[in-house]
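Many introductory courses stop at the sequence. We go one step further.
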Amino acid sequence: MDTASANSRASIISLTDLGVTYRTGPLWKRVAVPAVKSVSLQIDAGETVGLVGESGSGKTTLGRVMLGLVKPSAGQFLFQQRPFHPGLRREGALSVVFQHPEWALNPRLRCESSIAEPLNIQKVGDRAERKEKVAAMLAQVGLDPALAKRFPGELSGGQRQRMAIARALITHPRFIVFDEAVSALDVSIQSQILNLIRSLQEQHGFAALFISHDLAATRYISHRIAVMRAGEFVEVAPAAKFYSSPDHPYSRTLRESIV
């Protein structure tokens, strides 16, 4: 039995009535602006939830909450059934893959150094052991380990994104946020990266949040779809249900945009 199947009932992320409110405006007249309103969601090991909605709907804020980068103003956030604490980031329990791989790969460092950085922070093994782990991870993401000696600018866009995924996975996180992770890639390369993510999830069993404006990519990668509008979920449904017969009018509008 693969890891994903064995852990399919293990909750990694659990949000209950979670809210985020920002305060904006001049100091003498601060205004509370709700970005996320009473959201509840659970993501299990081996599951990908696609988060869709128009720009400004709260998707990025919610993703940042799940990464521990934004503190909720209300509600509860559990990570593996325990209250989230910032140390989880340093422990490598969660990670992120961005739209632009250069946000994860320092252009002045060889890729090997960028990928090994999380291991350095955790003080995992010695230099030789870390180098071995980097080579093994590059092989898993379909890259020749020799490419680790190159700088990011010497690689193609698809190779850089594979490097970024290798960096995200090097600590074997339980949860990964993919934030528009394929939107900057050519369509043919998108398909390769989506297949890679699916394969890696089957191997490692991590839970994932896939934030995207691309509903075709989201359809391919996600087990469930969460539709966000004005900081709220208007629908959370199995992917097959969302793409065949969504319940909410806004969901139907989104779905029709790819039909």
